[in-house]
Specification:
It is built from 8 helices and 18 strands. By secondary structure, the chain is α+β, with helices and mostly antiparallel strands. The two termini are about 40 Å apart.
Length: about 425
């Protein structure tokens, strides 16, 4: 699990940071080069209240650009598909087809071991919804589903693959099943995949393409004959574009390079039309030569949107930060040791907030020890995530900064937006 976490961390960190800090965006300067209160532009720093107002305005502006009614046509399609998959009678043909396709992927089978090699070419066929059920009308070519949505518009979902295929296997894909009666036995399922170089999925409605997803992958497996993943040597790079109506989410590059100088990288953005809403990027380095003891080093990330607010920074060493937190947890009953561990953790953090495209940061994030309880000589310590300002002031916790008073309108608008989306789906 640790090796997989390393691979995924660079993909997830920017999203987690956005959610935690309600962030929105700025420039491309390296956050490490611009500590709080420093940098160019000659602009004075913003106090806490000014930062609250800017964050509130940014959040409201961002949400105003995403309306649930802009996705009504997609909701019609989703509602239609849900209504057409309610019973076994409707889906029997699809389920039988899928089982046959999975059986076609079996490359060897014994009483206690089944090996499958999944490939897209085994999952081809055309289905149409007619007379109250799905009917297979073709057995080869692309994978296609045709139906009418709740607005009585003809819809088609089509998946096409092309280019090279990369064989990939890892023990994380496999499974074991244990049987205890009438006697103990173990059945193994080994699963490998042929990953297409190109995957293109399109959704048309009334003759107009309303959604699409394209994925381009380049995978380098040292042991290409077996496809066995070696995190110490293998590399991969993926680009993805997802379009839904007027919105485009683009992963310009998500990559992993294994070895003693391992690196994970992601760069992505979200547009509405030609307007950039959110941009994010991040990278992490380390050493993956020993899969049982993967080393995670420096993490760098940046999240911005609308050119209004950016959150960016570094964790100098993921391993050292994690070890410091573990040490703090272990010493939660010892104030001196706990504070020392949190200081070590903070020494790894350099996370800053920037407004209006400025290179000067206006606030930064740290961990602050606090006593949870004490009783007859015993005590328990914990920490809060604290936001500090360049004028030296700070809030006890980020939760205090994002209070229900200043951000009441933002919170209500967000909840209304979620309700609007929820109401689209029957």
């Amino acid at each position: 699990m640790k090796k997989i976490s390393f691979y995924l961390m660079m993909l997830l960190v920017s999203f987690f940071t956005t959610a935690a800090l309600v962030s929105c965006g700025g420039d491309d300067d390296d956050p490490e080069d611009n500590p709080p209160g420093g940098g160019g532009g000659g602009s004075s720093v913003l106090d806490a209240n000014a930062q609250k107002l800017k964050l509130e305005a940014c959040a409201n502006e961002l949400m105003a650009k995403i309306k649930a009614n802009e996705f009504q046509n997609i909701a019609n399609i989703i509602n239609s598909v849900r209504s057409k998959t309610d019973s076994n009678y409707e889906t029997n043909a699809v389920e039988d087809w899928f089982e046959a396709c999975s059986d076609a992927c079996i490359i060897s089978s014994t009483s206690n071991n089944t090996k499958r090699l999944y490939r897209a070419s085994n999952y081809e066929g055309t289905f149409e919804y007619t007379n109250g059920k799905w009917v297979q009308t073709a057995t080869n070519g692309t994978l296609t589903f045709r139906f009418y949505d709740t607005a009585n518009k003809f819809c088609e979902v089509k998946a096409v693959t092309s280019g090279m295929e990369y064989k990939v296997h890892h023990d994380a894909f496999d499974s074991e099943t244990y049987t205890y009666y009438p006697y103990y036995s173990t059945k193994y399922k080994e699963n490998a995949f042929m990953i297409p170089e190109n995957i293109n999925v399109t959704l048309t409605q009334g003759g107009t393409e309303v959604a699409s997803a394209t994925v381009h992958s380049v995978i380098s497996i040292a042991n290409s004959s077996t496809g066995e993943v070696d995190f110490g040597r293998d590399n991969c790079e993926v680009t993805t574009t997802v379009k839904v109506n007027n919105f485009t989410f683009n992963v310009e590059k998500a990559s992993f390079k294994g070895g003693s100088n391992a690196e994970g990288y992601v760069s992505a953005w979200l547009n509405k039309g030609s307007e950039r809403l959110i941009t994010l990027n991040g990278n992490i380095n380390g050493n993956t030569t020993d899969e049982d003891n993967i080393k995670a080093g420096k993490l760098t990330f940046s999240v911005d949107a609308l050119g209004k607010v950016r959150v960016g920074g570094t964790v100098a060493s993921i391993d050292q930060f994690r070890d410091a937190i573990d040490k703090a947890d272990y010493n939660s009953g010892n104030e001196t040791a706990y504070r020392s561990a949190i200081t070590s953790a903070n020494n790894q953090l350099n996370i800053n907030v920037y407004f209006d495209g400025r290179s000067t940061s206006d606030s930064y994030i740290k961990l602050e020890p606090n006593k949870i309880w004490s009783y007859y000589g015993s005590e328990e310590w914990g920490y809060d995530t604290v936001i500090y300002f360049s004028d030296g002031s700070g809030y006890n916790t980020i939760e205090d900064f994002f209070d229900d008073v200043t951000f009441d309108n933002v919170i209500n608008t967000f909840e209304d937006l979620i309700d609007d989306f929820d109401n689209l789906i029957d």
